[in-house]
Specification:
With 334 residues, the protein is an alpha/beta fold. Helices cover 28% and strands 19% of the residues. The chain has 2 domains: 3-200, Rossmann fold (3-Layer(aba) Sandwich); 208-325, 3-Layer(aba) Sandwich (Rossmann fold), CATH 3.40.50.40. Bound molecules: aspartic acid. The site of aspartic acid has 11 residues, from loops. Aspartic acid is lined by residues 10-12, 24, 58-59, 89-91, 115, 117.
């Protein structure tokens, strides 16, 4: 029987129904396997399970140090288990899964993130199905950081939360689902990392800012004046990476000032499907001339965590920019 470690980090899945449903930090309790056995009959038949509570946080409280704690827990027990299931709040699950996908070199075992929209102790919970699916998935040969939710499996760094109230909380707009649970488990695509020793490189520099453009935005207040506090700026531009570059409402002078001071500019899109093409319109072309980097078809979550990861590991801007354009962990198509 495969050995699987379940790591608890919090979120709705770890909330007790009878206490506040709105504040998981107050209502979370340290789960143990006896509780699972009671709530999820049959779980033990899938794998030889162990479980550890790392912390119990609403996932809005996640910070890079907590991503690193999850990564360290997996690293510490990497040789002892065949796969890992991480119970996590859905709100920032895609960020944590993306961050770990960059941090783990040569991952050869499944790391499956799951959670639920309704607490495990609730009669109508989606947690049972998500847990059973995730543990089963963790026993298979799917060496990815993935998100398993509502019978679907997404590559972690391609997923994004799309629904607050529906059991179908996630989507992977620019990448097919990796697997689907129906009558049988249908595995559709598998990521094959380079062979080599597993390595945890979970360090992240949070000196990053995300700016979502809107018509009429005051760029003097939203674009940093220089790169001393914000080393990289991720801009959620319009459509194909389009942005205002003409007349009085133009982003270009502020962007130019920021890049000349040593800031890195990444342009992603408010449109979730398809990829950024900075060559298509004047605004994108001008940003390109200032050295902006296209995020391709990456999610915003992947952009933020990838640049945090690169800034923590490399000083040289050419290396950071080149690596950002590369596909490091299946996060971008090209
Ligand atoms: N607020 C919760 C969290 O992300 C929501 C959830 O788990 O679904 O921690």
């Amino acid at each position: 029987m495969k050995r699987i470690l379940i790591l608890h980090t919090g979120g709705t899945i770890t909330m007790q129904l009878h206490v506040s449903q709105n504040d998981s930090s107050r209502s979370a309790v340290a789960f143990n396997l006896d509780f699972f056995e009671e709530q999820v009959p049959g779980l033990r038949e899938i794998a030889d399970l162990d479980s550890k509570t790392l912390f119990l946080e609403d996932s809005s409280n996640m910070i890079p140090e907590l991503w690193a704690r999850i990564a360290e827990a997996i690293e510490a027990d990497y040789g002892n288990y065949d796969g890992f299931v991480v119970l996590h709040g859905t709100d920032t699950m895609a960020y944590t899964a993306s961050a770990l996908s960059f941090a783990f070199d040569n991952l050869s075992k499944p790391v499956v993130f799951t959670g639920s929209q309704v607490p495990l102790s609730n009669r109508r919970t989606d947690a049972r199905r998500n847990l059973i699916n995730s543990v089963e998935l963790a026993t298979l040969n799917l060496p990815e950081v993935c998100i398993c939710f509502n019978d679907r499996v997404y590559r972690g760094n391609r997923a994004t939360k799309i629904s607050i109230g529906d059991f179908d909380a996630f989507a992977s707009p620019n990448h097919p689902v990796l697997a689907e649970f129906g009558l049988n488990l249908d595995i559709r695509s598998q990521y094959r990392p380079d062979p080599g020793a597993f390595r945890n490189r979970a360090r992240f520099d949070p000196r990053v800012q995300l700016v979502k453009l809107f018509p009429g935005m005051d760029f003097s207040r939203t674009i940093p004046g220089d790169a001393s506090d914000v080393r990289a700026l991720v801009i959620e531009a319009y459509g194909s990476g389009n942005l205002p570059a003409g007349g009085s409402h133009t982003l270009i002078p502020a962007l130019g000032k920021y890049t000349r001071s040593g800031g890195i500019v990444i342009i992603t899109s408010q449109a979730v499907y398809d990829e950024v093409d900075l060559d298509k319109y004047e605004g994108g072309r001008q940003a390109l001339n200032l050295g902006a980097i296209s995020a391709g078809d990456m999610t915003t979550e992947a952009c933020i965590t990838k640049i945090m990861y690169l800034l923590a590991h490399y000083e040289d801007h050419i290396t950071i920019r080149d690596l950002f354009r590369e596909n490091l962990a299946g996060e971008r198509t090209r």
